[in-house]
Structure formats: structure tokens, C-alpha cells
Amino acid sequence: MIFENLKEVSKDKIAIKYLERVLTYGALTLEIKKRAAALSVLKKDLVLCHTDELENLLNFLAAMFIGKKAVIAGKQFQHIQSVFDVTTFDFVHQLNYTDSEVCQIKPSDKDIFLGVLSGGSTASPKIIWKDYQSWFSAFPYQSQVFGISDSDSVFVLDALGYSANLNSVLHALWQGATVVLGRLQDASQWMRQFEEEHVSSVFLVPSHYRLLVVSGGKMPGIKSLVSAGEKLDVSTAEQLIAKCPNAVLTEYYGASELGHVSFQQNQDIVNNPASLGKAFPGVDISIKNDKIFVESSYVSPEYRDSPTVFDLGFIDADGLLFVLGREGRMFNKRGLNIFAEEIENKALLFQAIKEAVLIESLNHLGKPKLELLVVCEAKIVLNKKELREFLLTVLPPQKLPNKITQVAELPRTLAGKIDFKAFSKRPVEEEHADA
Question: What are the residue boundaries of the AMP-dependent synthetase/ligase domain, all occurrences included (predicted)?
């Protein structure tokens, strides 16, 4: 799968850069074999929870080498420990590595190699097991669609417990490119890091791209920008296109359970702000009872019999996919079904709004109300009356939220995705209506 490709890359080529550490492909291969020998004495599958994400990555590759299943937990370890029966795993902080030889296991497409922690927006956390087919069969198309080759230096954040980050790292190594692992706390220095490390491809979620675009200047050396995790807003897309004039900007929609589903690029992201594009290569999308079903080799093994995560949506006459929201984010207001993403996408069309989330909250009497939380551009105070008047031009009156609240920021997980569970901890206000 991946190790055969590593053999084809020059041993002196840089494989991974992280902080002050640099590993060539030759050094990476030796490190994997050394760690594999140490891991081979462990009888159970692994949760990798080292505080250094490069250590987790190297141990994960070593586990792959000998055919073990692993979950990269990193900072999420305590969360996993509180939810799962973790006695079925060994927690690898530090091992006594040796120079002993160990045989590589030749995997099949159906062999499980990775557990992804996924909780969706409202459900309890769960581990989704991935086999080699579900990830590696997409890699040739990722190279083609994202425009990534062995000549690239690919920047990815070091939160490898987020499966999209780990996927980007494995794809880059499979491709024979150089991986530059960055840190969220260094966001103000990313542009300088890109220049110093000759970064040509970037993978970030939208909330992290918003941190990037606030820095002045252009980045002509970037040729590929890839975004996933949540909808990329028009304002950030336009700023990225202007900031990186030589780059292809790709937004893709997917899920841990289903893999890649759809994508759109460049000006299409701006022109179709509510759409998630057309089917990713190798994917067949269908709508059954308003739910999105996905047939592809990228679907996780346990979901192949029923390949859906219960996202609701439709495909228009041009073949563009529109997601209305997951079943858990569909609200009922006086008998009318209201899809959160429909309201959020309309709100994002209003000037100065960067982010919008529709939630169900309780007033002081304990009655549920729909509340729209919005984040605006810096130093802008939202005119709620103007926003309501705008929403009335694009939505029927009965779909308007009961309350609009401007917030400085939205709660996020370590991966940079919106943390919907955190909304349940907001205090109840005495009055929960705007008008």
C-alpha cells in the first residue's frame, strides 16, 4: 500500500518536517522498522496518545507495518478513556525501541488498519474502523483533483486525531511528497513558515483558513489549497483566491463513515455558495427519502450495506449536491421542518457575516426556540433588524429564527470543527426573543 511507494522515493528526500525535526525518506523507513519491532511484542490493538504528534504518527506507521489496528488519540485520550472500554487497547507513550528486524505484513484491501474517533454533531462518540480500500483507493484521485504530486511540500496541522489531517499526511507520503506538520498556536507565523519551508499545498478546515487570510500579502508559491470539515464561506474563499493567485482552491464534502463524497473548486465555490459540488471521482450519489446515499470504494466497511450518515439533501438539474443538514439538525417549528444548513447558508450571504449556526435553545420558561448565532467581520456590530429584513427576502417568514445573537467566536473541537455539544452548556437567558 504505502510502504512499497516509500521504497521508490530517494532516501535523501525529506519526508517530514515538524518543529526542529527533519526525517528523510530513508530515515523514516528505518524508524518505522525499529518501532515496528518494539510494537510487535504488544498483543493488543493500540491507542496512540503521545503528547508529541510526530511520535504518534511514527508509531501509527509502525503499527501499519506489522498489521496492527490503531487509533490516534493524542489530546483526545481522556475523552476516549471516559467513553470506551479502553482495556482493549495498549497506550503507547514511550517504547524501548530496538534495531531488531521485523517482517512487514502484506495487507489486503479488506484489512482494518485505522480507527477514527467520530461523534458527529449530536451523537455519542464512536470509533469507525477503516480498511485499506476505504482510504488508499481514493489516493490517485486525490492527487488528480487536489493537484498534488511528489514535487510538493504539503502543510497539514499536527492534530492527527482528526482523520482528514491524517488522511492528508498519508496521501502525501504515499505520493512521495514532503509533509510539513504545523501547529495551530503558530497561526500568526504560517505565512513565514510557508515561505521558509517552500510549502506548495495546504490542507486546513475553514476556521483555520480564516486565521490565514487575516495576514497581509500574497502567496504566489501555493498551488493547491484544500478545505474540508464544514462549509467554506464565500468571503474566505474569495480572500484565498486573491491571496493565492496560482492555486487551485478545492472544497470537498465527506464523512468519516463515507469517505469523499463531492467537491467543487475555485470560482464555483463563490458562485454556488450553498452547494457542495459534484460527485468525487469514483462516487455515485443518490437521494432516497430525502437522505443522501453514497456508493463508492471509500465507504467504511460497517457502512457499506447502508451507505448514509442520514444527511438530508438534494441534487439539482446541474448535478450539484445540496446538503440541508443531518437529521439531528432538523428542527420542527409549528409543524414546519426547518433545516439548519439552509438557514445558515442564507445568513452567510448577508454582508459582514463570517459564520452562522442555527441551534435550538431554551427560554427562561423552558420552551425551545430557534437561535441563530453569527460571527461577524472584525469590529462590526451586527444590525439584527437589517439581517431579519434580508432573511425575509430569501426565506419564508415561518422559517426565521426566534432569536439572533452575535458572538465573538463559535466553540470548536481540537480539529477546528464546530463543537455542537458545547451549545448545550450555554446559560438560559431571561428573554429569548428579538422582537
Answer: 103-291
